[in-house]
Design goal:
203 residues; mainly alpha
Length: 203
């Protein structure tokens, strides 16, 4: 059972995305704005995972080629990423009155758009890095609207903004370390490789 879930994790995430979409459609009128945005973001994030991994895919292969990093198992990396997505973007749906949780996910949305655009320069690609379309056209607009809404309504204190950022960042770092260390590569070596790809010889 567990092995099947791991192997077909993207299909499980897709089913969860459909469930969230149905819930959103049925309860739109009664939902707080941030919960609506959180649902839309989660659906977009599932689409993003599919774009990176399957249609058209190629994200893992891109990382392997340009960062000299070989994942020990494709499914292992995908299930760790799926777990991070669930913690960061799915859990906040149950806490609509805790805005810093939702904004942690929205910070990831901004970061995804920036990083997928930066990868074009980092890896000397022509126009596209796997995941770029959903990052820029889906995740970024939802995240930007959420930022505008939260700032306009003054829903977060400075400390809450910090908590949101740390929640996103620490979760991302832990997920990365699990995948990278699980493949026999030191995390600091991975970060140095990323800096070299981004800044060339100055890293």
């Amino acid at each position: 059972m567990i092995r099947s879930i791991v192997k077909h994790n993207l299909y499980v995430m897709a089913a969860l995305g459909v469930a969230v979409a149905i819930f959103l459609a049925l309860n739109w009128a009664s939902m707080p704005v941030l919960q609506r945005l959180g649902c839309l973001f989660f659906i977009g994030l599932v689409m993003h995972l599919w774009e990176e991994g399957r249609f058209p895919g190629g994200f893992v292969e891109m990382i392997t080629e340009h960062l000299h990093f070989t994942a020990s198992s494709r499914e292992f990396g995908e299930i760790v990423t799926a777990a991070y997505v669930l913690i960061l973007a799915f859990v906040p749906l149950f806490f609509p009155r805790v805005p810093f949780l939702t904004m942690s996910a929205m910070m990831l949305g901004i970061m995804e758009a920036i990083m997928h655009t930066a990868m074009i320069r980092m890896f000397r690609l022509r126009y596209y890095s796997p995941g770029l379309v959903t990052a820029v056209l889906v995740l970024f607009p939802i995240s930007l609207y959420a930022f505008v809404y939260v700032i306009r309504e003054n829903l977060l204190s400075p400390v809450s903004w910090l908590f949101a950022f740390l929640y996103m960042l620490f979760g991302l770092a832990i997920a990365q370390q699990i995948v990278i260390r699980g493949s026999g590569m030191k995390y600091m070596d991975f970060l140095r490789t990323v800096r070299t790809a981004l800044f060339g010889g100055r890293a």
